[in-house]
Amino acid sequence: MRAVDLIRKKRDGGELTAPELAWLVAGLRDKSVPEYQWSALLMAIVWRGMTDAETAALTDAMTRSGEVVNLNGIPGLKVDKHSTGGVGDKTSLILAPIAAAVGVPVPMVSGRGLGHTGGTLDKLESIPGFRVNLSLDEYKRVLEHCGLVLIGQTAEIAPADKILYALRDATATVEAVPLIAASIMSKKLAEGIDGLVLDVKTGDGAFMQAYSDSKLLAETMCAIGRRLGKRMRALITRMDQPLGYAVGNSVEVVESVACLRGDGPEDLVDLSVELAAEMVLMAEKASSIEEARGLCRRAIADGSALERLRLVVEAQGGDPTALDDPERLPCPARHVEVVAPSTGYVGRLRARPIGQATVLLGAGRDRVVSQIDHAVNVILFKKLGDHVHAGETLATIGINNAARLDEALQLVRDAFTITREPPSIPPLILERI
Amino acid sequence: MRAVDLIRKKRDGGELTAPELAWLVAGLRDKSVPEYQWSALLMAIVWRGMTDAETAALTDAMTRSGEVVNLNGIPGLKVDKHSTGGVGDKTSLILAPIAAAVGVPVPMVSGRGLGHTGGTLDKLESIPGFRVNLSLDEYKRVLEHCGLVLIGQTAEIAPADKILYALRDATATVEAVPLIAASIMSKKLAEGIDGLVLDVKTGDGAFMQAYSDSKLLAETMCAIGRRLGKRMRALITRMDQPLGYAVGNSVEVVESVACLRGDGPEDLVDLSVELAAEMVLMAEKASSIEEARGLCRRAIADGSALERLRLVVEAQGGDPTALDDPERLPCPARHVEVVAPSTGYVGRLRARPIGQATVLLGAGRDRVVSQIDHAVNVILFKKLGDHVHAGETLATIGINNAARLDEALQLVRDAFTITREPPSIPPLILERI
């Protein structure tokens, strides 16, 4: 096989075979196919696209570039959830303990904040002592002991994806659905899961802002997973305004615990329960989605879900008392208010500038190596459709230093649009695939 | 400027500016823009194409990546010719001395054989002692002394093209008209010429087999040259059967000398005179193409063109007596005949398999480093439209060893199609641009 012939084939709109893609990915790893050939291929893929068969084969090759965890020793169908990323999206911290409490083993490998969005790992690390980097042995042990485990991607998982991701970033070949889908799925499939529930975001605060793009991504990921023998389900959900009221790291842990106590914000609880119910159904712990929902709500009501979170925090080295006492979590030195400029309704609330404001203040990363400030946050006091009086608090910004406060204030102010008439509130869940 | 932003711009169909292209080419040279970014850009160019302004700017940047020869010290308009490559195409050896004899300074930088086509440098090197690698000083001196000079591309000329060409070859991005045009033109513009006559081949033996592709390439090269202040003229000519009767290296020198003596084959003489006449007209040595043609024919008839060839061969270290005595040139050990399988007309004669046969026998290169056998050849005895009797010689193959003779014989045999009716003979020159 010659890489140039395979590039030509894709350039001319042909379909690469599974052995060809496996050979190319192996060549990427051992450097026998140089990066300049891969980047030409990537651009040809952006141009010509990939069939579902090609995308699945690429995913499989990327998965097999590293260790594939074997969880056969743990009984039951192992199910994870993946979100394409949003602002205030802390559903993982809520639904993983819920599904585990209902009896679904949840081996969850999460990511860090990217761009304007937050990352589950960053949120977890705001809990004192919590370790997200476990060995594969510990990973299995915690899953067995707690029914769930919450870790970051290890170096052994899908190393080809790491190389490809850096190359895509440098060559303007990030925004291609087959490449995005293969990147996400290759990591998920290495976890040893039997099924995956996807939360594909759409709208202002999502990476895919157009509905059609989000839908295509959801369909592509489901097609990949199913071709590779996994149970798949995707919900396309709105990410126009942040989920819940809390945006930041430690403050999102606090809000997640509130949900598990039964007093969380409705949108966040509803979405978390819905995703958890899909996991429960997928793992055959219920025979209908209604029954699954009921089991999930009960796991909140009877405290068993919160107990699971406490258990896993302790198992991964974290201080479980921090879940009961928010003062044990990093808190910002002071809060600055953003008030309503006029009386009316919150006619629009954009998630993206809110996310950007928190990143600016240190909650996220400009570069991979940046240090995170777990304390900074934006707390919303009003959400879409709420009535406000001029001068009333719309949001507070929690900071440790005022370095980029003005920019952050401007972003949060601009995120709100006050209108005379109440807006219509669109449904949170748009479609199931 | 960031390379990734420029790649994205081209990926999305945007137009790169001259400063952006100059920055990218400079980055290719000093490695600040890595090859993997350039190869993604190349594929985006294959996809999106380039405007004439972009192609001219890219060409200019590539030209300026190396030395640009200053020939202002030599009086008159300097004109070169470039052919896109064919089989039996030895017009350079004929027209350069003709144009020089009429008073046009001809600074000619030629290439080596590529694929199934022959190269002017390989043909020249079959003359004992002939040196194609001159210093830039020698280049100017020979041009001044002889009125023409025949050299190969030096390392100082358009080095960015060398890097880009290797990268295109490895990434399936060769076949894009703007990139082909920029590659050819960047080298030609570095020679210090005022004008360029292009012989763009079309048909079976050409790289661009489709007429529309050949025309687009001709138009693109003319547009680049004119934007960069050069006089440009392109002839689109048929390359279906070989030009003349001789295909090989030393044998093409012999046929070229025959043309300059006045007894060359009609197609070859006509095309050489036509291209030389365009050069004469471009250099303002005649006021009409008819007058230019007359001057060129006279330079053959009075022996002045042949005298020029003798002069330049001597100036570049070659043995001028080899032009009069073909036995001083490399000759093959033996000849093998290909005979007509039936009586009729040569209804089709394909140039490509004839070229492939000579390359197979050693007249051309599989790889850049291969050694050339200047003696091997295919000599045609019959051409398109000729009547033949069964058993009559169609061609001979001149070889030094029989290693790949069977394959070569098969190729030459298959190149001929004998038909009952005489074919129509299409014109050689199809269009002038």
CATH class of the largest domain in chain A: Alpha Beta
Judging from the principal axes of the Cα atoms, what is the shape of chain A?
globular
Structural class by SSE content of chain A: alpha/beta
Most extensive contact: A-B, 24 and 24 residues
Which architecture of the largest domain in chain A per CATH? 3-Layer(aba) Sandwich
- Using DSSP, what is the number of strands of chain A? 13
Distance between the termini of chain A: 38 Å
Number of domains of chain A: 3
The string of secondary-structure elements of chain A, in order, is: HHHHEHEHHEHHEHEEHHHHEEHEEEHEE
Strand order, sheet with most strands of chain A: 1-4-5-13
- Roughly what percent helix of chain A? 40-55%
The major β-sheet of chain A equals: 4 strands, mixed
Q: How is the quaternary structure best described?
A: homodimer
- Per the CATH scheme, the topology name of the largest domain in chain A is Pyrimidine Nucleoside Phosphorylase, Chain A, domain 2
CATH superfamily of the largest domain in chain A: Nucleoside phosphorylase/phosphoribosyltransferase catalytic domain
Describe this structure as you would to a colleague:
Two copies of one chain form a homodimer. With 433 residues, the first copy, chain A, is of the alpha/beta class. Chain A has three domains: 3-49, Transferase, Pyrimidine Nucleoside Phosphorylase, Chain A, domain 3, CATH 1.20.970; 79-155 and 187-323, Nucleoside phosphorylase/phosphoribosyltransferase catalytic domain (Pyrimidine Nucleoside Phosphorylase, Chain A, domain 2); 329-419, Pyrimidine nucleoside phosphorylase-like, C-terminal domain (Aldehyde Oxidoreductase, domain 3, Alpha-Beta Complex). In chain A, 45% of the residues lie in helices and 15% in strands. Chain A has 16 helices and 13 strands. Chain A has helices at 3-11, 18-30, 35-48, 52-63, 91-102, 120-124, 136-146, 159-170, 177-189, 211-227, 250-261, 266-282, 289-301, 304-315, 351-361, 405-415; strands spanning 79-83, 106-110, 148-152, 195-202, 231-238, 246-248, 334-339, 344-349, 377-380, 387-388, 393-399, 416-419, 429-432. In chain A, the strands form four sheets. Chain A has a four-stranded mixed sheet, sandwiched between helices. A four-stranded antiparallel sheet of chain A has the order 6-9-11-7. In chain A, strands 10-8-12 form a three-stranded antiparallel sheet. In chain A, helix 10 (211-227) links the parallel strand 4 (195-202) and strand 5. In chain A, helix 5 crosses helix 12 (266-282), helix 5 crosses helix 13 (289-301) and helix 5 (91-102) packs across helix 14 (304-315). Chain A is globular, with a radius of gyration of 22 Å. The first copy, chain A, starts with a helix and ends with a strand. The model of chain A has no long low-confidence stretch (mean pLDDT 93). At the A-B interface, helix 1, helix 3 and helix 8 of A face helix 1, helix 3 and helix 8 of B.
